[in-house]
Design a protein that fits this description.
Elements lengths: L1 E5 L9 E4 L9 E11 L1 H7 L13 E2 L3 E9 L11 E5 L13 E5 L3 E3 L6 H5 L2 H13 L7 E5 L4 H12 L3 E6 L4 H7 L2 E4 L4 H8 L4 E6 L5 H7 E9 L11 E2 L6 H12 L7 E6 L3 H10 L5 E5 L2
Parallel strand pairs: 9-10, 9-12, 10-11, 12-13, 13-14, 15-16
Antiparallel strand pairs: 1-2, 1-4, 3-5, 3-7, 3-16, 5-6, 6-8
Length: 306
């Protein structure tokens, strides 16, 4: 099968389209024929060796954790899915090797959910990692109706989903972005403010009593978080481990099929959508990585496999 692989750590120039063996399908697993996947910042950090201290790797490794596709076959004792089911998954495994930028990927049923019919294949391929990150952060902080939340990085992949989820819960959402993306934030359900100098004052002008919850999806904003947070408020970051030193939570996203199914159901109910920035064919995966590394896109960068 075709796969985008790398045989050492480096930059996108080392990514290669290679022929790899078909994955083995063990008990409690299914084989998925991949339709689309997406690039996330963690993907090029993995490529550069940024996770080497915490995750083992087997070279050549296939890139990608997000996946949308069709169940090709079902392993022993995997009754939750059947051949032909359309599925999505955040396919992070215990070590780096068999990723989603390939014709096929084998995954445990516990990480899979049914693809939301309201989303295209490209949108579905862009939902799992960003959607689960936003969903699990808001769950951990127990965001409730009537509370005020500040979202750092509202126009990014995670932030745009978090806005929609927070608004659906009945929270008042204030989110940061560059001015060119303010209308986009409004369309998602947020009151926009510009990041950078004066952010604290902008927020206080909208919410003088402060924020019940602050979530950080960009890093480098701890001073603002602490300045706007109410006494007894909750905060978390996916980008700044120092959050724990200030009474907050530093979070990673976990593969979880039940959480992902909840997101898929929200999408089918018209409560959640995914914006696409650009799509690439599998052969141009390196270009998709380079675009992600520029850090200026709004929406998901998708790689179409089949």
């Amino acid at each position: 099968m075709r796969a985008i692989t790398f045989s050492s750590y480096g930059n996108p120039d080392i990514l290669e389209l290679t022929d790899q063996p078909m994955p083995k399908v063990g008990p409690g697993m299914v084989l998925v024929k991949v339709k689309s996947a997406s690039v996330n910042p963690v993907d090029w950090k993995v490529l550069a060796g940024g996770l080497d201290a915490m995750m083992d790797i087997q070279f050549p490794a296939t890139t990608g954790w997000d996946v949308a596709g069709v169940v090709e076959s079902v392993g022993v004792d995997a009754p939750e899915f059947k051949t032909g089911d359309e599925v999505i998954a955040y396919g992070r495994k215990d070590y780096l090797h068999g990723g989603s930028f390939a014709d096929y990927i084998a995954l445990p049923v516990r990480v899979l959910a049914h693809k939301p019919q309201a989303l295209s294949w490209e949108q579905a391929g862009g939902l799992p990692l960003t959607g689960l990150t936003a969903f699990q952060v808001l769950n951990r902080l127990e965001l409730a109706a009537g509370e005020t939340i500040l979202i750092h990085g509202g126009s990014g992949g995670v932030g745009s989903v978090a806005i929609q989820l927070a608004a659906h819960r009945g929270a008042r959402v204030i989110a940061t972005a560059s001015e060119k993306n303010h209308d986009y934030l409004r369309s998602l359900g947020a009151e926009p403010v510009s990041y950078g100098d004066g952010l604290t004052e902008q927020f206080r002008a909208l919410a003088p009593d402060g924020a019940d919850v602050v979530v950080d999806f960009v890093g480098g904003v701890m001073d603002v978080t602490l300045a706007v947070l109410k006494s007894g408020g909750r905060h978390a970051s996916i980008a700044d481990p120092e959050a724990e030193q200030h009474g907050g939570t530093w979070m990673w996203v976990r593969p979880d099929g039940d959480d992902l199914q909840a997101l898929a159901d929200l999408a089918d109910a018209g409560k959640l959508t995914v914006e696409i920035a650009k799509t690439f064919p599998l052969e141009q995966a390196a270009d998709a990585y380079r675009l992600s590394m520029e850090g200026h896109t709004r929406g998901k960068i998708i790689v179409n496999i089949s």
